[in-house]
Amino acid sequence: MEIDNFPSHIIEEIKNTWEIWNSPPILSTDSLHLGDIELMNLNNIQEG
After folding, report:
1. Residue 30 confidence (pLDDT)
2. Model-wide pTM > 0.90
């Protein structure tokens, strides 16, 4: 089956899913614990 045979909304959904799966992870402050943020800050200070 050719990809051109799929409806355009299905192709768009597959494309969007592919891009999400293959994009680098995005860190949000919601996903980090305060201790992790403090540790990252401490590492940055020591490196700088």
Report:
1. 59
2. no
